[in-house]
Specification:
Two copies of one chain form a homodimer.
Chain A (H helix, E strand, L loop, with lengths): L2 E2 L3 H10 L2 E4 L6 E2 L2 E2 L3 H10 L3 E6 L6 H10 L9 E3 H12 L7 E5 L2 H9 L3 E4 L26 E6 L7 H11 L5 E4 L5 E4 L2 E4 L1 H12 L4 E2 L5 H11 L6 E5 L2 H10 L3 E5 L6 H6 L8 E3 L4 H7 L2
Parallel strand pairs in A: 1-16, 2-5, 2-14, 5-6, 7-8, 7-9, 9-10, 10-13, 14-15, 15-16
Antiparallel strand pairs in A: 3-4, 11-12
Helix pairs in contact in A: 1-11, 2-11, 4-5, 4-8, 6-7
């Protein structure tokens, strides 16, 4: 049964028990373009206590620099090393975990952010935003089409958010995935994401399409996948037993913590709710929950 | 253990035991644009014996009339009532099995063939080839976009082969599928299809993408799904115990027969092989196999 954090003593216990605080961003730190209450104060308090703050987001369209800029727009100074977007995590996973040789190229289904992170990790990318001919319908009579000119140096196909996804891109991606030596990496497997009061198809929708036709299973580098915690541990050498994941999403954030041996805390400022929490069987519930992240600061300041 | 059909006596037994012969087309009747040997003679022989011949194909881009025309190009006269393409089967499934009221509209992801079959079944379709604006990238700032103007009369979303699939079409399809009253129909769940010596993403790739983001499970109307045999039985009132499915594909044709109580016979003129057959556990093997469909005629003619 999840425990609600309601007292200074409970916050103190959290502070004593954990050195590393991992946060989801949207729904925890901010909501879309609004900073959530007392987040600034909470993060300052944690920093003053020497805690390591790590920000983990499945958004695959932004680079770390772009995330740092978004934090800065709210007055939050964050080191890029402490931000793990799923595009960055994918690139580091390829380099440090899979140890994909740097002379191998990356076939991209995704946006500029994904390309930049792989480039920064030392890889050359193809596909992605660099092949506008893929925006046209697939014409099998066109012998110049990329589908007939696969690059033998491609060692991995990476699928992230790509609003230019179409049959042509799927068909060429399939040809790469069918090669036994080409590794399949997914930035994350989110089925949808919220936008303009709707939900739109998420990265996982594209990932599943490519997985279904190729029958190749991807390494997913976003929450809730293990690959992501491997990347974070490899980068920062954190002790998972002294780490807590704070998020608003039961399926991604809390599952990420629970599946990977991190302590977990749900906040109710995003898509999570106490109702959804209580509907889960006990072993799948996070250890703690709170109305908002800012409660940690407010409770510590209370008498 | 599958039995190879090698004698006149064995063919005679098949002829005695079955009244309804269901055939896959590509790899059984023809291979791409070539009629396979002794097919004409075999079908004539079966007809002369009063057998019912039914042709079952997962191809969702053609109407029954187009299939009849393809048969005619090989000199085979076939009644359109005896051809079950997966687009036709989807329309009949909606009308006769789901009993979807005819004043409800059908949201289409697919080509003209799919639209025509639903139109012929009495439904009005939207989407599909009728909304060229969906070929453009999704622009959430455009308040005229179909994503903001969902048609409340839509009662089903149907996904078949659509080489114009893109993020925009997926996103609008998702909005329809998220409505509790909208039924999800898939023409078939083939992961790929062969073309130009390659394999390309099949209907199932699009179907899975829409299923993943919407978390809605489709009724699939192609082989190997039960919906298809329901449609055939509803149309022709055949006795499944007196019916045999002949095909070249273990995963679709033979599974379709095995899962739905039809006798099964594999032929080796398409993608099936004796090696693949023997690799299957015994309960998943077809009862009979032959080198080609034309063997039925050749063996009967032998002394």
């Amino acid at each position: 049964m999840s425990i609600k954090v309601t007292s200074k003593e409970m916050v103190q216990e959290l502070l004593d028990n954990y050195d590393n605080f991992l946060f989801d961003c949207d729904g925890v730190i901010w909501l879309d373009t609004t900073l959530l209450p007392k987040v600034l104060e909470t993060l300052d308090m944690l920093r003053a206590l020497g805690k390591r703050l790590i920000f983990v987001t499945n958004n695959s369209t932004k680079t770390r620099d772009e995330f740092v800029a978004k934090f800065a727009s709210f007055g939050l100074k964050i080191n890029r090393e402490d931000v793990f977007g799923s595009s960055y995590a994918s690139a580091i996973f390829a380099k440090d975990i899979l140890k994909l040789p740097q002379d191998q190229k990356i076939w991209i289904v995704g946006d500029k952010g994904l390309e930049k992170e792989f480039k920064e990790a030392g890889y050359k990318t193809i596909g992605g935003t660099k092949m506008p001919e893929l925006d046209e319908p697939l014409d099998l009579k066109n012998k110049d089409d990329p589908i007939y000119h696969l690059d033998p140096q491609v060692g991995a196909a990476v699928v992230g958010m790509d609003t230019k996804i179409n049959y042509h891109r799927l068909a060429v991606t399939l040809q790469y995935l069918l090669k036994p030596n080409v590794v399949y990496i997914a930035t994350n497997i989110d089925s949808t994401y919220p936008a303009n009061g709707m939900v739109l198809p998420g990265e996982g929708t594209l990932v599943q399409a490519a997985a279904y036709c190729s029958q190749k299973k991807p390494y997913s580098c976003g929450k809730p996948s293990k690959s992501l915690i491997d990347v974070i541990v490899k980068t920062h050498g954190i002790d998972k037993n002294r780490s807590i994941m704070i998020g608003d999403n039961l399926n991604t954030d809390m599952k990420f913590g629970l599946d990977n041996g991190l302590e977990t805390m749900l906040v109710m400022t995003g898509i999570g709710s106490e109702e959804a929490l209580n509907a889960l069987e006990e072993t799948k519930q996070p250890t703690y929950f709170a109305d908002k992240l800012g409660d940690l600061y407010e409770l510590m300041e209370s008498r």
